[in-house]
Write a structure and sequence with these properties.
homodimer; 118 residues; Bit1; alpha+beta
Chain lengths: 118, 118
């Protein structure tokens, strides 16, 4: 068992997603991030699910900021970048968010500690 | 292959969750609903993931309304009821939402067609 596991979802705050749209994108990122982590660290996913699936939703202000952070985090953990299918609200193919984890909290916090909550 | 698969998340609109809080609860419901469906219908989950994970976030106006719908839907499919851990914004143990699916769209729509999008 590692100390504390957390999933982090980073969303773009600059594209005007409504509450329901944002929630659906975050859920998409959450499921996709789990699917990536479970390949190499199935024990983390199991532990995290048994402990209540702690997750946090943070924001950035541009696609560029999102992608720079995504590339940095990907050097340590696989992460899931989400593009909207574009049925509603925003243009098809727009990058909306990415998800990473569950991963050890102290490792991911190094990348995300300066970001604000949505 | 069944025709079209969809996940539905029903959230309470009466407890004043902010965007980030709501998104985290919806993600929790999404992951938990998949974990329930995959036991009996793994082929639905596989198909749904390969087709873009269509999901919809709908609202009700009270805990009672949420629970009545949850019990009805549970007669057909396993569904995942989410209680908040209460670290932020709302009282610990508050029922916030539930998720069901992925399931065939025409079957779940019978239960949810009168509800509005978040």
């Amino acid at each position: 068992m590692v100390e504390n596991l957390k999933q982090v979802i980073i969303v773009r705050n600059d594209i005007g997603m409504g509450k329901g749209k944002l929630a659906a994108q975050v859920a998409h990122a959450s499921v996709s991030a789990i699917d990536k982590i479970v390949i190499d660290w199935p024990e983390w996913v199991e532990q995290w699910k048994s402990e209540g699936m702690e997750k946090i939703v943070l924001k950035v202000n541009s696609e560029k900021e999102l992608l720079i952070l995504f590339e940095k985090i990907k050097t340590m953990f696989p992460a899931a970048l989400i593009k909207d299918a574009g049925h509603t609200q925003i243009k098809s193919g727009t990058i909306t968010c990415f998800g990473v984890g569950p991963v050890p909290e102290h490792l991911i916090d190094e990348f995300t500690k300066k970001l604000k909550l949505v």
